[in-house]
Design goal:
The protein has helices at 15-27, 66-76, 94-102, and strands spanning 5-12, 33-45, 48-62, 85-89. With 108 residues, the protein is an alpha+beta fold.
Length: 108
């Protein structure tokens, strides 16, 4: 079964950047919902281990929106190498998925 819905994740270092990115994504109708949560990140970077407080954006959208969404995130992101990953939604409430369909631009 091929999924047509997904969650795209990205992280930023400032809440104001997270909020601005969420607003832009919704304005462009590339997602139906963006959730923002504070997180602690531990990662390897330039030969060492780093840790930072970040803001995680969980973006509810359709797989067909991913290329345009990825381009938008890259264009407006402050990181040299931003996390942008797509997580398939294998199944979900029919009513919720219909709501997603109604709130993003048509891509398929």
């Amino acid at each position: 079964m091929e999924t047509k819905y997904c969650i795209v994740q990205t992280t930023v270092d400032r809440k104001v950047e997270a909020e601005a990115l969420a607003q832009l994504i919704l304005k462009e109708k590339l997602a139906a919902c963006v959730q923002i949560n504070p997180i602690s990140s531990y990662y390897t970077w330039k030969g060492g281990v780093s840790s930072d407080s970040e803001w995680l954006l969980s973006i509810k959208t359709k797989v067909s929106c991913y290329p345009e969404l990825q381009a938008l995130i890259i264009a407006h992101h402050s990181y040299e190498v931003p996390e942008i990953i797509q997580i398939p939604i294998v199944d979900g409430s029919e009513a919720y998925l219909r709501w997603v369909d109604r709130n993003i631009k048509l891509h398929d």
